[in-house]
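re: the backbone from monday

yeah here it is again, tokenized this time
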């Protein structure tokens, strides 16, 4: 999923802490290790094997919801 988070993107430590808590990873829109263009990020599941589809969708839902809530609070 791609999402624009300009305020949270400027606070890297907080951004990474939320991602870690919800088992998601953050990348620039051009793939792994790419720089984000205009604070648009590619969000994906960090854990994949050994989990049900429902768990993986829930990780993504909870993580993106937490990122949006933090963005709105800044």
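seq for it, each position gets an aa:
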């Amino acid at each position: 999923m791609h999402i624009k988070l300009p305020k949270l993107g400027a606070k890297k430590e907080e951004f990474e802490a939320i991602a870690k808590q919800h088992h998601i990873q953050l990348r620039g829109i051009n793939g792994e290790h790419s720089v984000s263009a205009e604070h648009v990020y590619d969000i994906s599941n960090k854990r994949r094997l050994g989990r049900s589809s429902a768990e993986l969708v829930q990780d993504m839902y909870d993580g993106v919801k937490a990122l949006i809530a933090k963005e709105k609070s800044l």
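The first strand starts at residue 2 and ends at 4. Residues 27 and 33 are 6 Å apart (CA to CA).
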